[in-house]
What we know:
By secondary structure, the chain is an alpha/beta fold. 30% of the residues lie in helices and 23% in strands.
Amino acid sequence: xxxxxxxxxxxxxxxxxxxxxxxxxxxxxxxxxxxxxxxxxxxxxxxxxxxxxxxxxxxxxxxxxxxxxxxxxxxxxxxxxxxxxxxxxxxxxxxxxxxxxxxxxxxxxxxxxxxxxxxxxxxxxxxxxxxxxxxxxxxxxxxxxxxxxxxxxxxxxxxxxxxxxxxxxxxxxxxxxxxxxxxxxxxxxxxxxxxxxxxxxxxxxxxxxxxxxxxxxxxxxxxxxxxxxxxxxxxxxxxxxxxxxxxxxxxxxxxxxxxxxxxxxxxxxxxxxxxxxxxxxxxxxxxxxxxxxxxxxxxxxxxxxxxxxxxxxxxxxxxxxxxxxxxxxxxxxxxxxxxxxxxxxxxxxxxxxxxxxxxxxxxxxxxxxxxxxxxxxxxxxxxxxxxx
Length: 388
C-alpha cells in the first residue's frame, strides 16, 4: 500500500505578519497532484490541520476545498486533530464525511477503532490517535496519573489489542501527534510540556508497521518505521535549515517499509544574517539571499539610523530585525524578549523566582507547585476551547 504522509498544515497561520494562505493553497494543490501522479492509495495527515482552535473563515474555506479535492481525486484520507486544533470542531460531521472517503479521527475513546483499507496483499488498519492532552483524557483511557507517556501507552495498548484480534497478515499504521524522544524541535511548535516532561519514548510505537507522526515541524526519521513529515511550509526562522517535504511510504505484503522524501513548494527560502549593517549591505556573497525572507541580527555597537529601511533596500523581504551589539558579557543589555527566546514556560517561571529572590531559585516543593500551576493553566485553556 502506498501512503502519502503529511502533517502540521497550520491553515490560517501567518509568517511574521505575512499571510501564508496563498502558499497553503498551493500546497493543497501540490498534495492532491502528488497523490494522483504517484498513485497514492491513501493520504494521512498527522494533526495540526488548523493553527488555532477557532480558525479564521479563510482557513476553514481552504480546509473545505482540500477535503473536496481529495474526495474528487478518489484518494482515501485519514486525518487526526493536533494540539492546535479543536478536536470537537474538526470532528463535526465526521460520520457523514466518512462516506466520501475522508476519515476524521478526533476522539480519544476511538483510538482502537481503525479505518481499514485493502490492497491486493490484504487489509491495512489505520489507527488515528489525536493529540492526547493528559489531564483531559486520562479517565477516558483508564490512566491513573496524567502524563504524555502514560496516555499514549494506554492508547497504543488499545491499538495492539484490536490488531491482535484481526486476521493474520493485517498490516498496521498509526497516526499520532506527539513529541518523541530523540526528535528535534523548532521555535514554531507550541509547548506541550506536562510536569516538566513532554517527550515520550520511541518504544511506545512498538508492534505497528508504520507510525506517521505530527507535531514537530522538521522532517525526521527516528527509525525506518517511525517518522515525522514536518510542516509543509516554514513558520519560524528556526526552520531556515529545513527541507520542507512529505513522505511517500510503500508498505509491502510483509509490512516492510520503503520511504521516499518528496519536496513541497515554498514561496521563498529563509535566511538568517548576522553582522554590522555596513557589512551586510556591502557583502557580495549575500546576493543569493536578496529574494529570501530574511531575519537580520545587527552587531553594530550603536544602533544605526533607519536600519530596517536600509536593509530592505537590498533585502526587500526582511521581516525580522534583532539588535545584538558585539559587547562584553557585562555590557550586553538584551531586551526582555531576547532573554526569553528559546526558553519554555517552566524555565521562565523558575528564572523569575530566582530573579525576585536575588538569585535563590525555587526548591523542589516550590518547583513542583509551579509545574502543577502551569499544567492547570494549559488544561483550563484546552477546556475553554472544548466548551467555546
